[in-house]
Model the fold of this input.
Amino acid sequence: MNIKWSDAEKNFVRTNAHTMKDGDIASQLSESSGRTITLQSVRKMRQKLGIKKLAGRGICGVVSPCTSTVDIGDSNSDSCIHQLANT
Done:
């Protein structure tokens, strides 16, 4: 069943995609909204929002859409890393 996502839920995905796994986002949204939100639905919404995650298990980084830099949510990263949380 297709359920319309609220603006608050979309913003939660936007602000937490670079630090949380999709499954963790789904769990938090399910708890806060009172409805079941699956890993697949979070992944699809993230993709619709244009947020691309880095490949690999356990990596919580996203590829920045404005440049070819990467955000891995780590404050001790190299200069080639772009922190989305600071923008």
Observations:
- The chain has one domain: 7-86.
